[in-house]
Write a structure and sequence with these properties.
Blueprint: H1 2-100
Length: about 100
């Protein structure tokens, strides 16, 4: 009878160890899933922040380049107006000289 009790006790210990192992496995799996979700969330946040920073840099660069192009266009326009006025003044003087007979 003592042998049977030892066998039954060993079997109960084995069942208890198996149940504990199952609980440990479930906890480890849940912890791993939680860590995966945390890492995924952090990665998404970092990617979004990097994309926003890149977008802001691109917008600043585009703004600077646009301002430089506008300044260049304004200088070109001013030069063209100055040339046109010079030609107009010369043409008006020539026309006036012809009309007055000079």
């Amino acid at each position: 009878m003592e042998k049977l009790e030892r066998v039954l006790a060993a079997e109960e210990d084995a069942r208890s160890a198996l149940a504990q192992a199952r609980e440990d496995a479930v906890r480890i799996r849940e912890d791993a899933l939680a860590e995966c979700r945390r890492v995924e969330s952090e990665s998404a946040a970092k990617a979004a922040a990097a994309a926003a920073a890149h977008r802001e840099k691109a917008l600043r660069t585009a703004g600077s380049e646009s301002a430089a192009l506008l300044d260049d266009a304004e200088r070109t326009r001013e030069d063209a107006v100055a040339v046109a006025r010079g030609r107009l003044d010369a043409a008006a003087a020539t026309l006036a000289a012809r009309l007055t007979g000079d």
